[in-house]
Specification:
363 residues, alpha/beta
């Protein structure tokens, strides 16, 4: 698990952010020659003890000669900063100030994005969330591609965040090769939401891996073609397909569903037939392992936290600004992931029976 804010630690990063806030307030950085031509300068520090979820620690609060600086990150007379990581981007700051603050942690972002990874992940989830970004004077929609892995010990970890403009086999090849270059030798399952070009890329970089499409997303897509008056019954009948005990039974139930609803709602069922290979991997398993595989709820929960962190930002000035903000949100999410998946012993036991030495060599 990667610690919140990495090696700098919570205290050190708060100190960096306060220094950046002072830079923004004065209009120049520490020891910059611009400070020679102003009547307001830095004037040392005052120290106060801060209370946080990581315990108490002293923090040096920058002062200016004119006494005008009032930090918003740690306001005057406030000593308890518990939960400040949740509110970092909710604080009322200018875009320039936010940029200067986040620039302080850019080296940390780059280090995190290139850190070594585990040799094998039983499950890797991939999804995209879209944002407006300024690019060469135009505002365009760009996707942040999130890669989340589940370790052999049953813990979740965000492996990478990549901001890009398109979804193609070439793009995915780059992302997957990055995982491999950082030490990932094998992945048992990729759980995805029908990302274009992804199958070809997986077969090139991780040819042994299986793909599992998100069942929940497929159901939602099918339901769009069904009249509201039929939806309850249609959804109930569909349960027999994805709750079937085996793939063969699942196919039979899909044929039964087609016989009942196929003429009225052909498109609602056709997508399952067309994508059956990527939908049926989970039938090999039972119990908790199925729950992990056939939904991308795990990564949707992460995306909700990203949206919360970026809700006040309608347009990002560049890709780096978006990546920095998502990095901060990611660290906040991951510090809460202290528990293993429920029933992980059962899950890893099933995987060992199926994959044998391919898996056990990494345990």
């Amino acid at each position: 698990m990667y610690n919140f804010f990495g090696r700098l630690g919570f205290k050190d990063i708060l100190q960096e952010l306060l220094e950046a806030e002072m830079d923004a307030s004065l209009g120049y950085s520490k020891n910059h020659k611009a400070g020679l031509d102003t009547d307001n300068k830095r004037n040392g520090y005052s120290q106060k003890t801060i209370k946080s979820q990581f315990g108490e620690f002293p923090l040096d609060i920058p002062r200016d000669r004119n006494g005008e600086f009032e930090p918003k990150l740690v306001p005057k007379h406030q000593r308890d900063v518990s939960g400040i990581e949740d509110d970092l981007y909710g604080i009322e700051m200018s875009a320039e100030m936010v940029s200067k603050i986040t620039d302080r942690i850019l080296p940390e972002v780059k280090e995190w994005q290139s850190r070594p990874l585990n040799s094998l992940y039983p499950f890797v989830f991939m999804d995209a969330i879209h944002y407006k970004v300024r690019d060469e004077g135009r505002i365009v929609s760009k996707a942040a591609y999130i890669v989340l892995g589940v370790t052999t010990e049953g813990y979740k970890d965000i492996l990478s965040i990549t901001v890009g403009a398109n979804e193609s086999s070439k793009f995915w090849l780059g992302m997957l090769n990055d995982l491999k270059n950082r030490g990932v030798q094998d992945v048992l399952f990729f759980c995805v939401d029908g990302l274009p070009g992804f199958r070809d890329a997986i077969q090139t970089v991780f040819p042994q891996a299986q793909i599992q499409r998100c069942i929940i997303h497929m159901l939602r897509n099918s339901f769009k073609y069904v009249n509201y008056s039929d939806l309850k019954k249609f959804a109930s009948d569909f349960k027999a397909v994805y709750n079937a005990s085996t793939e063969e039974m699942g196919k039979l139930e899909l044929e039964t569903l087609k016989g009942t609803w196929g003429k009225k709602y052909p498109y609602a069922i056709r997508s399952w037939e067309d994508n059956w290979e990527d939908l049926s991997s989970f039938y090999q398993f039972s119990g908790e392992l199925r729950k992990i595989m056939y939904t991308t709820n795990i990564i949707e929960g992460v995306n909700r936290q990203y949206r919360k962190a970026t809700k006040n930002k309608s347009v990002f000035p560049n890709d780096a600004s978006l990546a920095k903000m998502l990095y901060l949100a990611s660290q906040n999410v991951m510090k809460k992931w202290t528990q293993r998946y429920r029933g992980w012993d059962q899950v890893i036991g099933q995987l060992i029976l199926l994959y044998g030495e391919r898996l056990t060599q990494y345990l």
